[in-house]
Every structure is written in C-alpha cells, then in structure tokens.
Amino acid sequence: MGLAEIAAGIEVTDEQRDRGVASVDRTATSLADRLTAVAGALPCNGTRAAALVEAYAAGKSVGDAGRAAGIAPTTAAKTLHLCGEQVCPLTPRQRDILEDWLDGRLARSEARQLTDASEREFALATYVATHDTVPEAREALEGALTDADATAEKQAVLGDSVDQPSDLVSGTR
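Above: the chain's sequence. Below: its structure in token form.
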C-alpha cells in the first residue's frame, strides 16, 4: 500500500469548529436544581452557579463565565473552587509563601511582596487556601461534566497496560 492510497479521502480544511467541552449528563435533575440543593454553601445561588459552570465548561475564562452568569469574576472563582475546580492564581512556590503567612511566619505585606501577586490574586489565593471544596457541589458537577461509564471503560481497557512502574524500564543497568 502506497502513501497515495493511505491518504485517499483525506480532506483539508482551513478552519476548525469549536465544539466546547464534551459532557454527558445522566442525572434526572438539572444542574441548576442539583446546585440549588447546596447553594447555602456557595457564594451565589444554584441557577447562577449552573450558568457559571456551563459557560466555564464551554471554554470561557473564569471572568467571562462569571459575567455570563451575572456574577463578579472573584465570586465566580470562589464558586468554581468550592465546586472542585483548580482556580488558585499562584504558583506552588508562591503558595508556600502564602502558607508561611497563614502560619504566622511572615507578615502579610512581606508575603504579598514575595509572591509578587496583585491584591486580588493574593486575596483569591487566601480564600482557596482557607476554604475546602464542597463535596456535594463537586458531586453535582461530576454527573454533569463527566461520563463515568466511559471513564470506567477506558480505565478497564488501559488498566493492564502497565502493571508496575518498573515495567517502563526494559533491561538492567
């Protein structure tokens, strides 16, 4: 078989359609209803939280998704954090400095100067470091944004690929 036969039928386009994030929702209730059940633990109501998550899943930035849901960008970031998304604006080293401040080993002004973070970034990182995610909110999103059956099927298929990390290394030294 030659290259021409392999390439037969291949089509080239000069633009790509943005399809967003694929999601499968196998739950009986809407995302808004599920988030309304835990809205007391979120900084916004369930309807706005659902609109935020849907916009965020469609590829919008945290700020744009928040504006689409009618909430401030900082509130959007806090909501996403409580729902289990990683929204901390600091690097791991900067988070270590933040932890030093939270543990009382540094003054706040010194910690902020060492992180070189803006006031908004520092405040959001502090919120993330001091507030745990809400398990019920995270569960509400998992049903809406993941396909558990497909994930389990993929894990079953790939599970036997590599039994031990030592299987990655062939031969001896």
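The radius of gyration is 22 Å.
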